[in-house]
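Hey, resending since the last one bounced:
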Amino acid sequence: MSISILDSAADMNRVLTSDADDRVDLIRDMGAPMAGMYQFIPGGVDMAGEHRQNFGFRPDSAMGATAAQASARPRPTC
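The structure tokens again:
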């Protein structure tokens, strides 16, 4: 068995600071390593849709304050 740890902080910061038109593709890129967890879904899963359903922000939302708050949080260490 293998365990993978994804450091998504840099990718999420890129999503939060990008133009709204670019966010959906950036979210898909960020979620790509997790797509294999959804093998049971015929045809696969749209990682941008999965993100929106589970993490609660729309890609077209205003992100200025959110990005600043995310950047100010201390990063966990393993």
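The chain has one domain: 9-71.

Sorry for the duplicate.
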